[in-house]
Design goal:
single chain; eight-stranded mixed sheet; binds S-adenosyl-L-homocysteine
Length: 470
């Protein structure tokens, strides 16, 4: 197979990043913008030893799973790699992905027998993201642009409105652009590390309507601040007048200071220049205080359902001691606390633990205790100390994509909880960790569900129940 060769292929799978996969002479070819079931004419753009990349030239027979991507920039933008796939097919793809990982990596023979349900979004799967971050730049004509980084680059694809985010964003983006162009405010240049405005971040409380607008700046202040705030207020008013019944309440305008030459978006300090420095939102009946830096689950419609599943798998009666590993701002801990004797949480980010404690207080919850540190350091230490918390009836883990540290898994096996509920955002590391727990001879996978938190993207969230073998 050589570069520029033309082939006709049938797409039979989808890769991690949402490319279609077809086979030519037994070799996998990755083709962007195709979906399972397409028959396509493709041109080889790069041929490696064991696989190749192809470009879609012409669709010969479109797949029945294909749909018109409603977003005009879906093809360029790195966010929604699956938008051209029918939503039902997206869900099937995600279920299959977890199943394959459990089989191939986890060594589970018939995972489909243990599969309980796919928690897909009920309604139109758009307008579900409660947080957006738009890099700010300048186009060729010298005008402000806000948008998204194109896949694997730092060039900004301009966006007027992201269909996965809240409707108010469109009005805020417009206001920020007008402010930059009108007041000739400089924007940050990644090469030289000069210029003021770096990112616009918006956060919305979907059940409270509260809105936070934050500018990440490479400096101490912004020029014409009062006018900027006024234009944000007006943008919200305009959105509200056109969206009666779905009003946003502007509660906070923030400046976040990031003066480092870094890929990290948010800096370590921020201050409110309007209103308070946080917004409130609810998951179920638990109230959360969310600051500009806090980690908070992105999809408020699905978070409650995912945690509801975790709660069900935890099988609590009110007498249990529970550990919530990788607890973030305590979302799962607080969710479980009402039905447990005591919940311990551990998390590496100190501010998150500060928020977790405050969120417990805010909700009048007093049976939680939070530790700052790496779960793989804190938990083994508490286990060997023998103090309260060294025993657990139920353990919930919700690690980042890299999964659990092996030392933590070894400690869990020693702690012998009856049930381990594993919430995962990466089915490959989930399957790897399930294998470790199963091979100890102490645990077996009993049931799992998949949840669609990030519709139109290839990301897959799952919730798994492991039980101790008696
Ligand atoms: N359960 C929370 C957060 C899950 S995200 C929620 O649903 O909101 C994963 C969390 O793990 C992040 O907050 C991250 O800061 C934290 N983390 C990453 N590595 C860690 C480690 N080694 N020990 C403890 N926490 C860690």
């Amino acid at each position: 197979m050589n570069k520029n060769d033309i082939y006709e292929v049938k797409i039979d799978d989808i890769s991690e990043d949402g490319s279609g996969i077809g086979h030519v002479e037994g070799m996998a070819v990755f083709v962007k913008d195709t979906v399972t079931g397409d028959v396509a004419e493709i041109k080889i753009i790069k041929a490696k030893k064991n696989y190749a990349y192809g470009r879609l030239m012409r669709l010969i027979t479109p797949s029945p799973y294909r749909t018109e991507a409603p977003c005009p920039i879906a093809r360029q933008c790195g966010g929604c790699t699956l938008q051209h796939m029918d939503y039902k097919a997206q869900l099937e793809y995600k279920v299959k992905k977890v199943e394959n990982c459990l089989k191939r990596i986890g060594g589970i023979d018939d995972p489909q027998n243990l599969f309980e349900e796919m928690l897909g979004m009920d309604e139109n799967p758009f307008r579900f993201r409660n947080k957006m971050q738009f890099p700010i730049g300048i186009d060729k004509e010298g005008k402000a642009v806000l948008g998204f980084y194109a896949q694997r680059t730092h060039s900004i694809i301009p966006v007027e409105d992201c269909m996965t985010g809240h409707g108010v964003n469109k009005y805020i983006i417009e206001a920020v652009k007008k402010y930059i162009d009108g007041k000739r405010v400089s924007v940050y240049d990644e090469e030289s590390g000069t210029g003021l405005l770096r990112h616009l971040i918006t956060r919305t409380g979907f059940s409270t309507g509260e809105l936070m607008v934050a500018l990440v700046i490479n400096g101490e202040d912004i020029p014409a601040k009062e006018e900027f705030i006024k234009s944000v207020e007006e943008a919200v008013e305009q959105y509200n007048s056109e969206n009666v019944g779905k009003e946003s309440v502007l509660k906070s305008v923030m400046l976040n200071f990031n003066r480092e030459k870094t890929n990290r978006i948010i800096g370590y300090e921020s201050k409110a220049v309007y209103g308070r420095d946080y917004i409130y939102d609810y998951i179920g009946d638990i109230k959360f205080k969310i600051s500009v830096e806090s980690f908070f689950q992105i999809n408020p419609y699905q978070t409650g359902r995912l945690y509801g599943k975790a709660l069900m798998y935890a099988g609590l009666t009110g007498r249990e001691t529970v550990w919530d590993m990788y607890c973030g701002i305590g979302t799962i801990s607080l969710f479980l606390s009402k039905q447990a004797r005591k919940v311990y949480g551990v998390e590496i980010v100190p501010q998150a633990i500060r928020d977790a404690k405050e969120n417990a207080r805010l909700n009048g919850i007093n049976n939680t205790e939070f530790y700052v540190g790496k779960a793989e350091d804190v938990v083994p230490e508490i286990y060997s100390s023998g103090k309260d918390g060294s025993h657990a009836d139920v353990v919930v883990v919700d690690p980042p994509r890299k999964g659990c540290d092996e030392k933590l898994l070894e400690t869990l096996i020693l702690m012998k909880p009856e049930r381990i509920v594993y919430v995962s955002c990466d089915p490959a590391t989930l399957a790897r960790d399930i294998k470790i727990l199963s091979e100890s001879g102490e645990y077996r996978l009993v049931r799992y569900s998949v949840c669609d938190m990030f519709s139109h993207s290839g990301h897959v969230e799952s919730c798994v129940l492991l039980e101790r073998l008696k």
